[in-house]
């Protein structure tokens, strides 16, 4: 006698996704699925989990415990196996989500002139001009109060060194390694996500406790 195998759904949640406001969040948006038998995968990918409203804010936590009941309502006899993390952060954005060109130019100018002023103030603090004059004097044997050739080469060297250090020149990368800035942004985003997950989990538990107490009193 052959036994029919229990249908199984393997779920791996994405850590973070971004959707436009007014659009529903489907299971295929937040998770990678592997089903046995495979015929059910397309149906589950289109399973609507929620439709964010204005009261939900711009960050929503979707937990695996919210997903499992909806999968079982669609497939009552299915076994759900979770792989990896048990939650996904959904960021709700207005419009297309593309950055404004004017805002990009403004930020670029602020960073450019801010960095330039920082470098100049540092050079003024350590009296870099006198150091360069002294270096040229040691090399050439004569004192030059304006060693422009040395200063131009030094300035170009700073720019080249920054490009090598950050592994980036416009859209060109020297190799596939992440830049120090990308690593720092990744770590920052991870810390922010962890904080939001903890806060949202506590809020959800508080709401569940309030609902439970209200039901007990009634």
Overview of the molecule:
- The longest helix has 38 residues, at 180-217.
- Helix content is 52%, strand content 17%.
- Strands 4-1-7 form a three-stranded mixed beta sheet. Strands 2-8-6 form a three-stranded mixed beta sheet. Strands 3-5 form a two-stranded antiparallel sheet.
- The two termini are 52 Å apart.
- The chain is elongated, with a radius of gyration of 28 Å.
- It is an alpha/beta fold and 218 residues long.
- The chain has seven helices and eight strands; from the N terminus they run E-E-E-H-E-H-E-E-H-E-E-H-H-H-H.
- Keywords: Membrane, Transmembrane, Transmembrane helix.
- The chain crosses the membrane at residues 103-124, 148-170.
- Pfam families: SporV_AA.
General shape: elongated
Structural class computed from helices and strand pairing: alpha/beta
Number of strands: 8
Give the quaternary arrangement of the chains. single chain
Mean pLDDT: 82
Largest sheet at a glance?
A: 3 strands, mixed
Instruction: Name the helicity range.
Output: 40-55%
Query: Strand order across the biggest sheet?
Result: 4-1-7
Radius of gyration: 28 Å
User: How widely separated are the two ends?
Assistant: 52 Å
Strand content of the residues, in percent? 15-25%
What is the helix/strand order? EEEHEHEEHEEHHHH
**Number of DSSP helical runs:** 7
Low-confidence stretches: none
InterPro entries: SporV_AA, SporV_AA_N_sf
Keywords: Membrane, Transmembrane, Transmembrane helix
Pfam families: SporV_AA
Transmembrane segments: 103-124, 148-170
